[in-house]
Amino acid sequence: MPEARRFPGQERRVLEYFQKNPEAANGLRGPLFEDKVVDFVVEMAKVTDEVVSPESFRQDRCRLGRRGRREEKRQGQAQAGGEVRQGHG
């Protein structure tokens, strides 16, 4: 456990602490799980380069303003059969 290595000579005490305190152990699991999810998504991503003119780039940015990104997300969810929620955020 990497957390135990941060306290040389006290590894056993650190392990016992996390075994006796499930909430503390959960605090370690969250970031580890998040890292695994991010790694998985990065592995699965297909990145392509596309050359665009500055004007085209500006038009897309204006078209996809804050409201536009949310609307495209909703449309994508609806097409994928996902739940679509209205609201702020």
What features would you highlight for this structure?
mainly alpha, elongated, 89 residues
- Radius of gyration, CA atoms, in whole angstroms: 22 Å
Q: How large a portion of the residues is in β-strands, by DSSP E?
A: under 5%
| SSE ordering | HHHHH
Helix fraction bin: 55-70%
Number of helices: 5
Structural class: mainly alpha
Largest sheet: none
Nutshell version of this structure?
The protein is mostly helical and 89 residues long. The chain has a domain at 2-44.
Ordered list of secondary-structure elements with their pairings:
Blueprint: H1 2-5, H2 11-20, H3 22-44, H4 54-63, H5 66-79
Helix pairs in contact: 2-3
Structure description:
The chain is built from 5 helices and no strands. With about 90 residues, it is mostly helical. The chain has a domain at about 1-45. Residues about 85-89 have low confidence and may be disordered.
